[in-house]
Design brief:
heterodimer, A: alpha/beta, Rossmann fold, 9-stranded mixed beta sheet, 10 helices, 11 strands, 26% strand, globular, B: alpha+beta, Arc Repressor Mutant, subunit A, 3-stranded antiparallel beta sheet, 5 helices
């Protein structure tokens, strides 16, 4: 039995039956605004806070300041201290987007990785990483190599993916197949804001609860209501019809 | 950002190079690492004068690139070359063939190098 790595997201670890497997690579997908990055940041902050596990946050989409401000405004516990103390290392879009910079940065990242003090990694997003490659074949090859490198270096990683399909439709691409687990985040608009959902669709080698659970984004980050299994996905103030949501039973 | 594709200006000369055994061996060696003419000559056991001629041909067609000057063990500065070919495509058009070269990108290289390290 390998150890489970707790995400630190309230309720999610219960749905995951304890957490995600150490050394696995998990895809977190969803449309913009569904809370993927927040979940990733919570995951890293929790590692530092509770287990003294350093984290690496790679973002192709934001600057370091944007990330820290977001963490601050949501109130992700321990984020800013962890960044200041070097327990969380951020590589931002300035570091990653220039191609020659990318390769130098990758070398730095691998040095950090080798230092043994870092074992959690979030890549935000895989979608942008894949833009470095031209063909499907190349994307596949380099995603596999990336996963290999992360595993070999003892990382438990979340790879964030921008999804175009609107839940419950989903794109099933090579990313879904090549990763050890798939977590989907979704939201449906309501009169007062949004109803949010999380669905753990796949997790290799472990028992999981594959119901769709409601979740919230609140002070402190994402919170999953793990006791609400079996709630009606269609209930509440969904504008469900326009979303094309139908009852799929156990979904 | 990804490996760029470019059309090579002298398609017939490119094909000519690819038909030459020495040129092809030099090209393969330079895909892996940058090397000087002397280094190539020793590594591949090809006479140095031949290496110089082939390097000129390959450089002219754009199949290899001059990378800069490197210091040898004897403290001499020598020109080093490297190839960035990932893929070549030949299109046979009525008048003249066309050759497209897809470059091997920095992103590919860095991941490949990291990946090679963990295979050891």
């Amino acid at each position: 039995m390998t150890d489970k790595v707790k995400t630190g997201v309230e309720g999610l670890d219960t749905v995951l039956n304890g957490g995600i497997h150490e050394n696995s690579t998990v895809l977190v997908s969803g449309n913009p605004g569904t809370g993927k990055s927040i979940l990733g940041m919570q995951y890293l902050a929790h590692g530092v806070d509770e287990y003294d596990e350093g984290g690496v946050y790679l973002t192709f989409e934001e600057t370091r300041d944007d990330v820290n401000e977001a963490a601050e405004s949501i109130g992700i516990e321990g984020w800013n201290e962890a960044v200041e103390d070097g327990d969380i290392i951020i590589y931002d879009k300035m570091d990653l987007l220039e191609e020659t910079e990318f390769s130098q940065t990758l070398t730095h990242i691998l040095d950090d990785i080798d230092s043994d003090s870092y074992s959690r990694l979030v890549m935000d997003s895989l979608t942008m990483f894949e833009m470095f490659f031209e063909s499907e074949q190349e994307k596949r090859t380099y995603l596999l190599k990336l996963i290999d490198i992360l595993k070999h270096n003892g990382f438990t990683s979340l790879l964030i993916q921008e999804s175009e399909a609107v839940f419950p439709d989903r794109d099933i691409g090579l990313e879904e197949f090549l990763t050890d687990g798939n977590i989907y985040l979704a939201q449906t608009p309501t009169k007062s804001g949004a109803n949010r959902y999380v669905w753990v669709a796949k997790m290799r080698k472990q028992e999981i609860d594959t119901h769709v659970f409601p979740m919230e984004i609140d002070e402190g980050g994402v919170r999953v209501h793990e006791n609400a299994a079996g709630f009606s996905y269609m209930s509440g103030e969904n504008v469900g019809d326009s979303m094309g949501v139908d009852d799929r039973g156990g979904l | 950002m990804s490996g760029k594709t470019e059309t090579l200006a002298e398609p017939v000369e490119v094909l000519d190079c690819l038909g030459d055994e020495y040129s092809v061996r030099i090209l393969s060696a330079l895909t892996d690492d940058e090397m000087s003419a002397k280094g190539i000559s020793e590594e591949l056991d090809i006479p140095i004068a031949t290496v110089y001629r082939r390097i000129d041909d390959l450089d002219e067609t754009g199949l290899i690139e001059f990378e800069g000057k490197a210091l040898t063990q004897e403290d001499k500065r020598v020109k080093v070359y490297r190839s960035y070919i990932d893929e070549l495509r030949v299109f046979f058009e009525p008048d003249e063939p066309q050759v497209e070269m897809k470059r091997y990108s920095e992103a590919q290289r860095s991941i490949d190098e990291a990946w090679k390290r963990i295979q050891r």
